[in-house]
Each structure stands twice: as structure tokens, then as C-alpha cells.
Specification:
Shape: globular
Number of strands: 8
Strand content: 15-25%
Radius of gyration: 15 Å
Largest sheet: 6 strands, antiparallel
Order of helices and strands: EHEEEHEEEHHE
CATH superfamily: 7,8-Dihydro-6-hydroxymethylpterin-pyrophosphokinase HPPK
Number of domains: 1
Number of helices: 4
Amino acid sequence: MALVYIALGANLDEPLQQLNSAAQALAKLAEADSLTVSPFYRSVPMGDIPQPEYLNGVASFHTSLSPLELLDALQAIELNQGRQRLLRWGPRTLDLDMLLYDDLCLNSERLTLPHYGMKQRSFVLVPLFDIAPELTLPCKTRLNQLISPAMRDELQRHQE
């Protein structure tokens, strides 16, 4: 079983509901009782496209799926929840990004692991730290070394 970490993000069509539905779908890909989901955080969108703020989180679980099988399953969940790939960094009903798959380093046409931008994104690192504070990345960098106070200040924890 591989331990995987998945970033979740949404800013259209009831983002909280989108993330909760995605978590339910991820549970079906996970080994029984292995799913953990971080608190959700509000964040400003990346890029220059005017759009609503995002709600983001991170999930972890054990799976028997291969990296590409998992990628296909994540993309199917996105499509099921209305995802349309119109603009890079544009608004979306759901975005599921595979961050880590065990300690696998992979750079293929379809998938890069670890996720290429995760070390710079507060909306990934802070919720990842919430569920895996002792995590060391495949590059041997400890997760807590990547999170600055400014990154924490960029986010607002979602209050239900």
C-alpha cells in the first residue's frame, strides 16, 4: 500500500460541499479507515484571473492504486463534480492534485511527483502540516522547514 497526499481546492458551486464530496469519493479509493482530511483554508487565487477565493485542504490515505491509476481516478472525481479545464489557474468546481506518492520521484508527460509547485504554496503546505507535521519530503527536506509565518498569514482557516 502506498501512502499518498492529495491537495483539494474549489472556488465554484459551493466550494465546501465540493470538498466534502471529494473527500467522500477519496474514501472509496482509500484502504479502509486510512483517510485523513485536513482542516480547510480560504486562500486567494493564483494568477491574474479575477475569480472567487479558494477553499483548500489536503487528504492522505493508503491505496493499492498505481500512480497513474490514482491520477485517472482523481480526474474522474473532478469530472464527476463538474470540473472543466478551460483556463490554467482559472476558477474550478474541484481541483485534486497528487502531491506525494510514498517517496516516489517521477517526471512523466502526465504526472510529476512530488507535485512541482507544492514547496511554494501555502495552501498546500499549511494543511499538509496539519495532518503530517513530521513529514519529510523525498528530497529529504522536512515539511516544517518550508512553512514561514508569512505563509500561515496568507490563509484563513475555514470556520463552519
